[in-house]
Specification:
heterotrimer; A mainly alpha; B alpha/beta; C mainly alpha; B: alpha/beta; 8-stranded mixed sheet; two-stranded antiparallel ribbon; 11 helices; C: 0% strand
Chain lengths: 325, 304, 289
């Protein structure tokens, strides 16, 4: 049991190292790309006014060699400064700060709902394995899994927003009215419904499949026979032992899914006009807004790394077999 | 359809030890699980009865069977890392077994468990541990202690020496044997290893292809077998005491139980098989006091 | 020569027999073959010209235009059919690149172990942690968006999963007796790797590659959907993007390309899953070539 502390420490160091490596890779891939950000910033003066361009270049520090820029970047990073966006003329930290909450709202809500629903359906299907319900559910799930997330979103809009008029088509708030307090939250929830539904439907099959497979696998384990031989009912064995053992894989996946959910969330935000980091990313790529881009990637990568790390910790608590290493 | 068992007739007296000896697929485990009623759900028992204290176990409902499982007839499961749940503590599971069956409180359960752990020569520290943290020998001991928890009359040991090195094997078997004597248990030992059965069991039933091929006192059978299969099986196990003999291998491979050979199941591999063996399954015939064998040509092969 | 052919034929026969036991897998296979068939035959089918804008715009579903026309007056049906060529090529090329790089990397990491393995494994882990989609998005947006580019980039960023599988396989096979025996007989590392280990280790990678193809198609359509893909290629993703603005009145422009993606990806998933079940390393008996 005393293995926990050193293991955590090792994993922590690994995570930090990974993030560091990501920062490096990030920086070089982005800054080595063709296309000159200065020209974009200079806009219409890019070709007519070389003096202006030179001054701009100096101001943004882009006249210095790459390695120097990297060191500067690192130092600033430690101070909590992610640089200045070329396009928005604001600190990257501010821009991301504004947009991160809506993204997190979508991401976490859908993660949790998808997990709970997926696991529930997986358990249900495993217990009724082979029946019509199980087969239809499996079929539905694999079809869902095949659908591109953006198409799914469009279909949901088509059905529920356009035809049935149950939900708004886009945006996070109702643009025309200004709500306060609880009504504001309700309004947001109403706007959240379809985007979250899209993300949930996109993730559902993963949890379903892994839970179902896990439970079926557990039913074949030796301890099931042991407990049966000692007078336990099938139901009791299931609730007390199979379930607990079988939930390990889904929980592992839960943490690791963050990366995929973020990609999906970006697309969903664009479809639904949701003011999160998704649209930001796209525009930043188009406009060569390097600082913003780096900031976004960094935040994403840190989020994923942290999620991985947390998953490791949680898994360690749940599965005693890991602790021996 | 796999015909796992076909033609088994055995008796076990109180305090006796019976060995079920056979290769994998011979049906020895299936037989034991049938006794406890823990066959997989797609298993069917077509004919026969299992009498325990004059009750036919096959006629009992699940609920009635549960009053026997663990309490009157206990299984020592095969030793594997997952014979108990890997994520729960050992102590918690043992307590759960007692709570579920006898309704003891946690404190009372722990007392009982510690008592049995002592008999199995285990420290009560293992209660706080997880199953995979134990060595093979300790796991086996936990299984033994578990089987004794509710003071059963019959204990069935399923391959009690799997994965153990020779020295530990000997220790376990020796302890098993003394336990049986001290507690006056009726013991059934399932194994593919002749020496295990020879050491622990007074009676042995040799199984092959789902049938009992020879059955009787182990001393008699191992010294003077009256069955071709048993003899060949014994010859393929070198004996440390007897002079160096040529080790014989039984030609061929175990039968496919989906489509077993007609007549005597062993006929494709038997060096003595004749036409009769290919068409008719030999019955169990008595060849001595409590000694039965299944072969058409006992007299011809082994003399009077 | 003859024995090799007969051996391959026997293997194929027993493989097909195994495969056909899984009805769902068969469905997937037929679906996939159907799509492949149509994609290959597209130029010879009686379709409208997918690029021609001579028809009336926004025509709904009709006999003449089974899936309607889009905002430029192009026939949606023929564009969907032609789009399959793009997606399938992208899928298989990207998956192929991914498989190649993954197999080589995984084999080296698994076989040589030690420092080489540590470094490679670290790289694999990092790659798996970065959401590939974002990186691909950026690279395409900045470095270039020809369809060739897209395929290559996807392939080069998705190899880690193959590498991981391959590495695990090689690690376990490395200790097997036949490998040890070959090495002791003095056969060089490279030969052992290519002749003995890789042929036996490759089975789960094959299944994974099919799934990777599906993944590549999803990524490519996603990139095209964002408007970042090759504007000259007929891509289902781009079709959805173009039709988005008209979703309220002319839904078919975006709907059918998406359906096509779903069906294609579905067929690949079904085949991939079935292959994974059959080619399960626990099931495979190692064969000495």
């Amino acid at each position: 049991m005393s293995n926990i502390a050193p293991y955590l420490f090792r994993r922590g160091i690994q995570t930090i190292l990974t993030i560091f490596l990501i920062i490096i890779i990030n920086f070089f891939i982005i800054n080595l790309a063709p296309g000159d950000p200065i020209r974009v910033i200079a806009g219409e003066f890019a070709f007519s006014n070389p003096e202006y361009v030179k001054a701009l270049r100096k101001r943004w520090g882009l006249d210095k060699p790459l390695s120097e820029r990297f060191i500067i970047y690192l130092i600033n990073l430690f101070k909590g400064d992610m640089g200045f966006s070329y396009r928005y003329m604001q600190p990257v930290t501010t821009i991301i700060g504004e947009r991160i909450i809506p993204t997190l709202l979508l991401t976490f809500t859908s993660l949790i709902i998808a997990f709970l629903l997926g696991v529930l359906l997986g358990v249900f299907s495993a217990r009724k394995s082979g029946t019509l319900v199980d087969i239809s559910l499996s079929f539905t799930m694999i079809i869902l899994y095949s659908m591109p997330v953006f198409w799914l979103g469009i279909i949901l809009i088509l059905i529920f927003a356009v035809n049935l008029r149950l939900f708004p088509i886009a945006g996070m708030y109702s643009a025309r009215v200004k709500y306060e307090g609880v009504r504001l939250w309700l309004d947001i929830l109403w706007h959240m419904a379809l985007p979250v539904a899209t993300l949930v439907l996109a993730q559902l099959p993963v949890y379903y499949k892994i839970t179902k497979a896990s439970i079926l696998e557990q039913t074949r384990e030796d301890y099931v026979r042991t407990f049966t031989a000692y007078g336990f009912h099938r139901e009791t064995i299931f609730r007390r032992y199979i379930l607990r053992n079988a939930l390990l894989p889904p929980v592992t996946i839960f943490g690791l899914q963050l990366g995929f959910v973020l990609s999906g969330a970006a697309l969903v935000e664009i479809i639904f006009g949701w003011p999160g980091m998704g649209r930001l990313l796209l525009d930043a790529a188009f406009y060569r807004d390097y600082p913003l881009l780096m900031g976004l990637y960094l935040v994403t990568a840190i989020g994923v790394a942290a999620a991985n790390f947390l998953t490791d910790i949680v898994y360690m608590f749940l599965d005693p077999r890991v602790r021996l290493r | 359809m796999v015909k796992a068992l076909n033609g088994v007739s055995l008796e076990l007296e109180k305090g006796e030890s019976l060995g079920l000896l056979g290769e994998s697929g011979s049906g020895k485990s299936t037989l034991a699980y049938a006794i406890m009623g823990i066959l997989p759900s797609n298993a069917r028992i077509i004919a026969g009865e299992i009498l325990f204290n004059n009750n036919n176990l096959l006629r009992l409902s699940e609920r009635e069977l549960n009053t026997i499982r663990g309490k009157k007839i206990a299984l020592i499961p095969q030793n594997s890392m997952s014979a108990l749940s890997p994520v729960h503590r050992i102590g918690d599971q043992l307590v759960d077994i007692l709570k579920n069956n006898v309704g003891l409180s946690k404190k009372e359960a722990l007392e009982k468990i510690k008592e049995k752990l002592k008999i199995a020569r285990l420290s009560s520290n293992i209660l706080r541990m997880h199953f995979h943290e134990l060595s093979g020998g300790m796991r086996q001991r936990v299984m033994i202690a578990m089987s004794l928890m509710m003071d059963p009359e019959i204990v069935i040991a399923d391959e009690p020496t799997t994965g153990l090195d020779v020295i530990v094997q000997y220790q376990i078997l020796r302890e098993l044997k003394s336990l049986q004597k001290n507690l006056n248990l009726s013991l059934i030992v399932i194994s593919h290893d002749v020496s295990v059965i020879a050491y622990t069991c007074k009676k042995v039933a040799v199984l092959y292809g789902g049938s009992v091929f020879e059955y009787g006192p182990s001393v008699k059978i191992f010294r003077d077998s009256k069955n071709p299969y048993t003899s060949l099986l014994l010859k393929s196990h070198p004996d440390i005491h007897s002079p160096v003999e040529k080790i014989v291998e039984i030609p061929g491979s175990p039968p496919n139980m989906l489509n077993p050979p007609k007549g005597c199941v062993f006929h494709p591999r038997c060096p003595f098989s004749k036409t009769l063996c290919k068409t008719k399954q030999p019955p169990l015939i008595k060849v001595g006091i409590d000694h039965y064998t299944r072969c058409h040509f006992v007299k011809e092969i082994f003399g009077a | 020569m003859k024995t090799i052919i007969s051996r391959v034929m026997n293997k194929t026969r027993s493989f097909l027999k195994l495969y056909s036991q899984d009805k769902i897998g068969l469905l997937g296979l037929f679906l996939l073959l159907f799509i492949l068939f149509i994609a290959i035959l597209a130029p010879f089918l009686p379709l409208h010209d997918p690029y021609s804008i001579k028809y009336r715009r926004f025509l709904p579903i009709s006999w003449k235009h089974p899936l309607g026309t889009d905002h430029l007056g192009r026939d949606v049906f023929s564009r969907v059919i032609w789009g399959s060529r793009t997606s399938l090529i992208v899928g298989f090329v990207a998956a192929g690149i991914s498989a190649l790089v993954g197999i080589v990397t995984g084999s080296i990491a698994g076989y040589y172990g030690g420092l080489v393995d540590d470094i490679l494994s670290r790289i694999i882990d990092i790659f798996l942690m970065i959401p590939a989609f974002f990186l691909i998005l950026f690279i395409i947006a900045v470095y270039g968006n020809s369809i060739l580019y897209v395929m290559t980039v996807i392939g080069l960023l998705t190899w880690p999963s193959n590498a991981r599988i391959m590495r695990a396989q090689v690690l376990s096979l490395r200790e097997r007796e036949f490998v040890q025996a070959s090495l002791m007989m003095g056969i060089s590392d490279l030969r052992v790797l290519f002749k003995h280990i890789i042929p036996n280790a490759i089975h789960p990678v094959i299944a994974n590659t099919i799934l990777q193809a599906a993944n590549a198609i999803i990524i490519e359509t996603g990139i095209s959907y964002l408007g970042l893909g090759d504007p000259n290629a007929i891509s289902w993703g781009r079709m959805i993007y173009e039709g988005q603005g008209y979703i309220m009145s002319y839904w078919w422009i975006s709907f059918f390309p998406g359906l096509a993606i779903a069906i294609t990806v579905l067929s690949l998933y079904l085949v991939g899953e079935t292959l994974a079940k059959i080619l399960n390393p626990k099931r495979i008996e190692v064969s000495e070539f």
